[in-house]
Amino acid sequence: MRLGATLSGAALIALLVAGVPGEARASEAPALEPYQLVRCLQLVQDRIAAGDQASLPMQRRLLELTDERMRTANPAAFKDAKNFRALLIYAMSGGNPLTIEQVISRLTLEEADRALAQGVIDYLRGKPSGTVEALASIDPLTQSSELGAFLALVKGSVSLADAPEKAIVLFDQARLLSPGTLVEEAALRRSVGLAPRLGDGGRFLRGSTQYVRAYLRSPYASQFADAFVAGVVALNASINLDAVAEVTALMDAEQEKVVYLRIARRAAIEGLNELSAFASHKAEQGRDGHGNDVDPRAQLYSGLSAVTSGAPIEILDKLGGIDREKLSKGDRALLDAVEAIASEVTSAVPLAAPSKPVDIANLPPASTDIEEPPADPMVPDAADAAPAALPAATVQEPAVAAAPANTAEPAAPAAADDPKIADARRKLDDIDQLLGASPE
Question: CA-CA distance, 185 to 94, in Å (whole number)?
């Protein structure tokens, strides 16, 4: 159940008409109670979570209307518990911290309610320690479902760094109290990102499946994609790759390809050759007979996986056939680096000698000259964000972590000591330094 009684269709339509962009102001809107305005805001946000991006402008306008209504409301209005809860929910739905502080300062509150309000204000102000202290004694399950869901999400969010086990339980509570809402979307997305830290592959796969089924059209799905790619790489030794494929099969073909390309790149750079080969193959394979073997990214990451596996000779022709103009800035630098290593190794090592697996611990990250992921809807200033759906062809790639120490068999001494190999290493160092100095 959402806050308060459901508005009549006429009242809701009147509110939305007043909320469209233009000269209309809150004073011209119907005389709605604060809890009724917040109810409308929640309805719109839930539609956004389900993928209705056309509602984003309406959300911004409703936040403006609600903000003005909160600031101009008589303090006596907040003696009604529904309106006080609505004030806190508005705050955690992208509300203005200044408005919340202004309204709270005019109210006479019981100690428990004042602690609750202070915890929410500290959260909006980016003070996690204050939030933890103020909300320590508050059990979300003892609150109304609407407020309790938000409180569980907030408490879980500020517990992520120091108490991940506690945070995951709180996210479960948020989902339990508010299914099918923007709160559940945020809680589920954060749970997926947290599960790898706990080493919980089962939770990671379950949460990913649930998210893809319910919220893949959310404008915040790009953040889920970040968490999913990172989780697959982090948990590669403990999760079944067939189960990963079952999750991606729920995406559309283009989204699935992009996710596999990202996994292939990160896995190859981190030296996870089996995972990189799996993801590269999936990206090239495509779906329903529509392969992606001509996609230059798929060719590059497949080639990168082969080079790290110790087969640079066979892959040079494939790398040479890649259309560089279709690669991002970061991937062009990656291609240059891999070609340099492969060329030097193949010219330095006798054909009869075993090939040395290439150490690419510091290869350049993917291009960052694309749109930033949208802001999280449940953090301060989220209302000012301009979120975008999971991109079909380009997705923000997090910075690539250094690969683990190379444990492969060493090459023949003559090859390892060859000056051409050392020169290739110096070229890679130069590339890394240039990339580090270049704004992206």
Answer: 15
